[in-house]
Amino acid sequence: MAKYQQLDAQGVSAVVKAAVKSAGATHQAIQRAAVQCIGHAIAHGDIRPANDLLNGLGKSVRKQGLVVFFETHGPFAFSTADKALVYFKREVGFDGNKLMAIDWASSVPPEVIKSSIDVADELEKLLKRVSSAADKAAKAGVEFDVKGSDLATTLGDLLAKYRSDEYEPEVELPAVKAA
Question: b or e along 155-164 (b: 16 or more beta carbons within 10 Å of the residue's beta carbon)?
Answer without folding.
Answer: beeebeeeee
